[in-house]
Design goal:
Oligomer: single chain
Helix content: 25-40%
Shape: globular
Distance between the termini: 20 Å
Order of helices and strands: EHEEEHHEHEHEHEEHEEHEHEHEHHH
CATH class of the largest domain: Alpha Beta
CATH superfamily of the largest domain: Glycogen Phosphorylase B
CATH topology of the largest domain: Rossmann fold
Strand order of the largest sheet: 3-4-2-1-5-6-7-8
Largest sheet: 8 strands, mixed
Number of domains: 2
């Protein structure tokens, strides 16, 4: 099967970027001819080669092409699609399926895919309730046209169903198990990994820290991720650390040291970082929203709480006070992850969705 995975932004930082890269590698490992197509940004970004014109590299057996465009600066910063469908034509010839991830270039991608006679598949990563979330009438009309829509959870698939989208497949996200670094687990360290956005719980976690210190003055907080534009400054306390964007090795060490992972999001399609935490031996605190209730089983492999300081403080203190229960939750999450959310398993589910989409696309052209 010849597969094109298209995503406008494809650095090595970010959850949807990691999804696109890892899925491409997993499909290539299953013997498919896989290519990635992305924007060559106007400024250096981690994991993207630098040089004139279109640039190519290899990502674990999948070819990746970063397209040079005259509007790269604007297209890289704004929720736009400033590229023509014709720009994709040479890369889509002979493709069986084009898979668009995250809606960033979806208009020209759909047109180019139809022109190439391939099946068009989306992983929209819808966040209903957020600006530019993919829940508008135009988006829904496109989902109904798609040869397949890939959802990450049954909850997300249910949202598509209520919108009249019938060709939906639940694939999830995967992770490649790896041995945690040989570092000592710390007794009271809370880890956050993600963009420092209000909706992910960053602001509320900052406000929860002083509440926690009243009872556990030994608690430390480590916050990894990109700071948002005009976001609040880090807390001026030695027990609060914000190293920013770090290497994969540094992130793995942070997970291995942490006692609790806390990301109480208001909006997530899945929450890949919960899997990372479980494999590193951390229980998790997740937002109390439908997709996360499906991924994180409350009281079994983590806790749910509202994205507000008092609730977050209570959840963190509950886990810090009962290390044995915290370890049991982490073990339950790890076991479930290895059963359901490895990349080979996700690639197999995705492959079946592609086959169904290709059959539909061929019938519609007949």
């Amino acid at each position: 099967m010849r597969v094109i995975i298209a995503k406008k932004l494809l650095s090595t930082v970010g959850g949807s970027e990691a999804l696109a890269r890892a899925l491409a590698a997993a499909l290539a490992a299953r013997g498919h001819d896989v290519s990635l197509v992305a924007l060559k940004p106007a400024w250096p970004r981690p994991g993207i080669p630098v040089g004139p014109g279109d640039l190519q590299t290899d990502i674990a057996g999948a070819r990746a092409t970063f397209l040079a465009t005259p509007f790269a600066a604007a297209d890289g910063l704004l929720p736009t699609a400033l590229i023509s469908a014709e720009r994709f034509a040479p890369f889509f010839r002979g493709a069986d399926v084009v898979h668009s991830i995250a809606r960033e270039w979806v208009g020209p991608l759909e047109r180019a895919t139809r022109a190439a006679g391939a099946a068009f598949v989306e992983t929209p990563l819808v966040h209903p309730g957020q600006p530019f979330s993919g829940a508008g009438s135009g988006d829904i009309a496109r989902y109904r046209r798609d040869d397949a829509v890939l959802a990450l959870t049954e909850s997300e698939a249910g949202w598509y169903a209520t919108a009249g989208v019938t060709r939906t497949h639940v694939t999830g996200i995967g992770i490649m198990p790896a041995a945690p670094p040989a570092v000592a687990r710390e007794p009271a360290t809370v880890l956050f990994v993600g963009r420092k956005e209000r909706y992910k719980g960053y602001d509320a976690l900052r406000c929860a820290a002083p509440l926690i210190w009243r009872e556990r003055p030994d608690a430390r907080f480590v916050v990894i991720g990109q700071r948002r534009f005009l976001g609040p400054a880090p807390l001026s306390d030695a027990r609060w650390s914000e190293p920013g964007v770090v290497s994969e090795s540094e992130k793995a060490q942070a997970y291995a040291r942490a006692t609790v992972f806390a990301m109480p999001s208001d909006h997530e399609t899945f929450g890949f970082t919960y899997l990372e935490a479980w494999l590193a031996g951390c229980p998790v605190i997740a937002g109390d929203i439908p997709p996360l209730r499906e991924v994180v089983r409350d009281g079994i492999d983590g806790l749910h709480c509202a994205n507000e300081p008092a609730a977050i403080a209570r959840a963190i203190l509950e886990l810090l006070a009962d290390p044995a229960r915290a370890r049991a939750m982490a073990a339950a999450g790890r076991e479930r992850t290895l059963e359901r959310w490895t990349w080979p398993a996700v690639a197999e589910r995705t492959e079946r969705a592609y086959e169904t989409a290709i059959t539909r696309a061929r019938r519609s052209r007949a």
